[in-house]
User: Which sequence fits this backbone?
């Protein structure tokens, strides 16, 4: 019927709980409302409203906070093709015209399907990591190389060309929002900007739960480990650093089982337990790289 959404829609077996991403519920909710809600309206209503779908999202924030995880999940949430994932430095090529050609190729499949199937085309997602790398340097001493100019222009022309296409969603990512060419951020381009910041205490607890779920359900976690305590003691840790903390604690635990007189063989791993003290040792070893605030440095 005319009420059936023909564009992207939440994948039938999609469950938010299965995402394995902690502490980003507000960010997901914002993305959903701002970038997807129009795509699941009945097409007739979209026409009556006279609106265009959002074609581009920019995720920005410090490294290791889950931007890449999120971008990939967005593809899984929607009935989209396997996303194309590229990163800025990989697009750049020293041969004249080759970088622009790389950008052009990214859009080729979506353009072809749109031509063949029109509104029945599936959604194509393009994930652009380290987007700042293709933008010319601004505000740095000595000025920029300007190398990125024509590459950015090519990307802009593709994005604007997508105007007629409703089947493309671009997800850009960067740790350097200040480096992104403003032309890329305008309405109709990467117009929805979502900040992915370091997790707060409850986010850290969710992330620690995710990264210890196997060891907890397999009885390898010591009874004395209190994840809430660890969440409280890991201010400024990113998701990636919390993952590193769990790995470090595990390495302290397995190290107790090294066979005497060897460096590479374990003994008796049956009773392996990762204990609170392993996590405390790990806390000495794994430090947050970002967001350490001034009071703590004084
Ligand atoms: P970068 O800017 O360095 O590319 P990013 O923000 O894209 O970083 P990811 O690559 O998504 O970060 O995260 C790296 C790893 O850290 C993930 O594979 C995951 O193991 C862990 N991680 C980061 N954030 C989260 C999170 N919010 N929930 C669960 N795991 C996380």
Assistant:
């Amino acid at each position: 019927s005319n009420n059936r959404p023909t564009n992207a829609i939440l994948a039938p077996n999609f469950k938010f709980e299965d995402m394995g991403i902690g502490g980003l519920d507000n960010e997901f909710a914002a993305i959903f409302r701002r970038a997807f809600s129009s795509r699941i309206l009945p097409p007739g209503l979209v026409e009556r409203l006279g609106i265009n779908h959002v074609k581009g999202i920019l995720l920005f924030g410090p490294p290791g906070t889950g931007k890449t995880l999120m971008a990939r999940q967005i593809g899984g949430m929607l009935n989209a093709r396997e996303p194309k994932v590229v990163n800025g430095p990989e697009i750049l090529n020293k041969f004249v015209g080759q970088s622009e050609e790389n950008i052009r190729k990214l859009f080729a499949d979506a353009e072809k399907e749109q031509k063949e199937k029109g509104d029945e085309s599936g959604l194509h997602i393009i994930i652009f990591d380290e987007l700042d790398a293709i933008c010319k340097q601004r505000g740095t001493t000595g000025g920029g190389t300007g190398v990125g100019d024509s590459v950015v222009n090519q990307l802009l022309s593709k994005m604007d060309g997508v105007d007629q296409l409703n089947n493309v969603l671009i997800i850009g990512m960067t740790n350097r929002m200040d480096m992104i060419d403003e032309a890329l951020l305008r309405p109709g381009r990467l117009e929805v900007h979502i900040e992915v910041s370091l997790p707060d205490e409850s986010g850290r607890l969710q992330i620690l739960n995710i990264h210890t779920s196997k060891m907890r359900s397999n009885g390898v976690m010591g009874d004395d480990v209190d994840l809430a305590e660890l969440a409280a003691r890991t201010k400024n840790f990113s998701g990636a650093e919390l993952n590193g903390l769990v790995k470090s604690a595990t390495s302290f635990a397995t190290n107790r089982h090294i066979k005497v007189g060897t460096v590479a063989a374990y003994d008796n791993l049956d009773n392996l337990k990762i204990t609170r003290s392993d996590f405390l040792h790990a806390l000495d070893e794994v430090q947050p790289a970002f967001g350490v605030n001034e009071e703590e440095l004084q």
User: Anything to note?
Assistant: The radius of gyration is 23 Å. Confidence is low (pLDDT under 50) at residues 1-8, 138-145. The CA atoms of residues 233 and 290 lie 15 Å apart. The first helix runs from residue 25 to 36.
